[in-house]
Amino acid sequence: GVNYIRSSNLETALFDTERVEVLRGPQGTLFGKNTTGGAINITTRQPDLSGVGGYVQASGATHDRYDIGAVFNLPVVTDKLGVRLVGRWLDNGSLGVNGLNQGIGGREQIAFRANTLFTPNDAVSWAISADYTRTKGDGPVSKLAFVSPFPSPAAGTPNPAPALIDIAISQGILNPALLADPVANGPAIGAALAQARTLFAGLVGRRGFYDNDATGAQGIYARTYGVSSNLAVELTPNLSFRSISAARWLKRWLDVDLDSSPFPLLEASLSSRAKNLSQEFQFSGTVGQSLDWIVGAYFNEETGRDFSRATALGTINATNPNITDGFVKNSSWAVFGQFNYDLTDALRFTGGLRWTEESKELRSFNRSSGGAVCNIPPALQLGGTCQAVFKDGFSDYSYLASVDWTLRPGLLVYARTARSFKGGGQNLRGTGSADSFAAFAPETVTDYEVGTKADLFDRRLRINAAIFQANYSDIQRTIVQASPGGAIVSLVTNAARARIRGGELEVTAIPLDGLTLSGSVGVNDAKYLDFTDVTGDRSNEPFQFPKYSYRLGATYAAPLDFGELRLSVDWTWRSATQLVGSAIYRDSLRQRAYGLLGARASVYIENLNSEIAIFATNL
What we know:
Blueprint: E1 17-24, E2 38-44, E3 53-61, E4 65-77, E5 81-92, E6 96-97, E7 103-104, E8 107-121, E9 124-137, H1 162-170, H2 186-201, E10 219-236, E11 239-257, E12 266-287, E13 291-312, E14 322-342, E15 347-368, E16 373-374, E17 388-408, E18 411-422, E19 443-456, E20 461-482, E21 488-512, E22 515-530, E23 532-533, E24 536-537, E25 548-560, E26 563-574, E27 577-578, E28 590-591, E29 594-605, E30 610-616
Antiparallel strand pairs: 1-2, 3-4, 4-5, 5-8, 6-7, 8-9, 9-10, 10-11, 11-12, 12-13, 13-14, 14-15, 15-16, 15-17, 17-18, 18-19, 19-20, 20-21, 21-22, 22-25, 23-24, 25-26, 26-29, 27-28, 29-30
């Protein structure tokens, strides 16, 4: 019931879970944080108050991948108070090496969690959780994909490509003095840049699949921890109260050589820290046999700092390094309600509504040349100093309306519409112009869906099917621009309109006892209806996910004299995917369609209450 403020270190949250719920489409009327694309609700296991228990789980795999986890369950007071302790260690070896023969793609992670459950009587349940996760590792695996198609300058049309100039100068094939008069020296500059382009093209694909030529500093460190309290009280048989309180902290830094080449083109050190406090109150109950309801209020405050130090075109750019530094304070509050009403024994209506108010505050310190040059326009500077304060407020509503009809036991059809939004904000990184520091608007989406859920033939066949369309307004997208001083910055902007439509089909069948067959297919057809920004008309850009995907799987379980044998195999496939939206890179940064075959064989030994398995995730 607590929002995870960043995706960093999320893997350990999936260890020792009770259940994972994947909620598709806009959410917001029931959860503390509104979201436009769906929500994943992870519920960890609570202490078992009836007896001592626990387990150990360990695995080893190729690429020096090791995973050890342990759980210990202790009832302190039988049926009243218990503690569940979780620990996990992950070690993934480096996948490749960089130009300095240092490992890349590897990481180590340790995590701990303690869940306490107190139930003094049948009407009160109080769950308290604390967790800590630390990750450290190599730089990311990145590859040179292609050489920029921008043309070399010709006489009379000076248009030098800065990155290629940097390469040409660093390799001694371009005399910097030629740049003093690029018109007159156009042919000589063009010849030098052509030579640099050929040099750079020779680096594409010349090393192993996971290796690159990067020579800049690389590495990652992340630490996240938090505490939460979930108190539930049954006030009367028809009225309950719940209070969810949480505090979470995050610290992260990353050194990365963004160009993955032996040249000093773009290197960065990034760090961030954040603290998030949240409080939610809920009242829920029933009225008669037909109405279930819940109302609540939610409060959230996030404070933190984001810092980056980037070196762009280190050989020739005198304004290096470029420093982005900002202190952030984001706060929000919301009120919400939702109800289910049984119109008949077979027909049910669900309605929900939420109102959210957000306040965003940013104190920005953007500078370059080690602080000698201020990148904040004078009109925005605070008291003549190199800092600016931006304050913006956003408010919007979310809703849900759905009708489901149980035609007969095991067969349900439904129709649903929902609306939600993702809050606006400020751009921490600017190009030096006032426009680049402008706030971006909230992103809103309205979703429509119809579908069916069917359990047939004594639950030996399950079919879930849905078709949907999501209409986006002011969808938030990232653009990359160069500042006048040469720094490369990413900015968030709004695309006016977009829509995603598609369908999903999931089938699970048990034709024989012990044999389970499953399959799914999905279609996601997405397009921008109107997308124009400072770089031009981008309406024809593709979305960065596959249009088609499917999965096939089979599991067979057979009893043994001492336990059970279980065999499973699965195949997943996805169509070609555009990794970067811009049309300039469409042919070069397109991931081809591919499929992955995985398999697992396990034996359960009843007397030892243990399982041994071998597995592969990419056969």
